[in-house]
Amino acid sequence: GLNYTQCLLRTLPGVSDDRAAILFRNESGERQQLSRAQVRERALGIAASLRAAGVRPGDRVAAIARNSAEVIEACLGAAAVGATWSSVAPDLGTDAVLGRFAQLEPVALFAHGDYRHHGIERSLEPRIRAVVRELPSVRVVVILDGAVPADLREGVEVVRLQDWLSARPLDVAQLEHFPFNHPLYILLSSGTPRAPKCLVHGA
């Protein structure tokens, strides 16, 4: 067996933990660089919080998210505990999001609070609220940045990513191993002309 996150984030002979693992630049030109050590600590902190929230191997974790470093870390955190990751772009409409995620029955949802489209900042709060209302499987919503939605469905915990990052990280050397074909990502087809189809990628 193997653990996908462990394969990527373990300490490597002759490779400094200070070496850049993520180099990121957003639409505004802001640059971010994270070392292997930083990504490991953050991703495994998220993994510890997912485990504490009851996420288990084989569970699905979904995201409505921009391209960003924290999304990579959340994805690696989910893979660390054996969960299967699926994400959609923030400009996808509510019905299109539900057409994809309803098939997956995700137990956790990561989401940015807003996104920029054609130079205009747009809130994701109404979409998050609608998606959570229609997905009874979701137990926890993790806001990656931006405003925290209020009045979500009863029984749903809402947390900020920053709070989850403060958890004591799991030990990369002690991560559970899973079968070679353990579901890692679920990509979804365009849904044209029929409903979106799940494309499962193994570890």
Overview of this protein structure:
This protein is α/β, with parallel strands linked by helices and 203 residues long. 30% of the residues lie in helices and 26% in strands. The chain is built from six helices and eleven strands. The strands form four sheets. The protein has a five-stranded parallel β-sheet, with helices on both faces. The protein has a two-stranded antiparallel ribbon with strand order 1-2. Strand 1 and strand 2 form a beta hairpin. Helix 4 packs parallel to helix 5. It is globular, with a radius of gyration of 17 Å. The termini are close together.
User: Could you give the order of strands across the largest sheet?
Assistant: 4-3-5-8-9
Outline the biggest β-sheet. 5 strands, parallel
What's the pLDDT, averaged over the residues? Answer: 93
So what's the overall shape?
globular
- Rg over CA atoms, rounded to whole Å, is 17 Å
Order of helices and strands: HEEHEHEHEEEHEEHEE
Oligomer: single chain
Give me the number of helical elements. 6
| N-to-C span | 10 Å
Total number of strands = 11
Helicity range of the residues? 25-40%
Low-confidence segments: none
Structural class: alpha/beta
Strand content: 25-35%
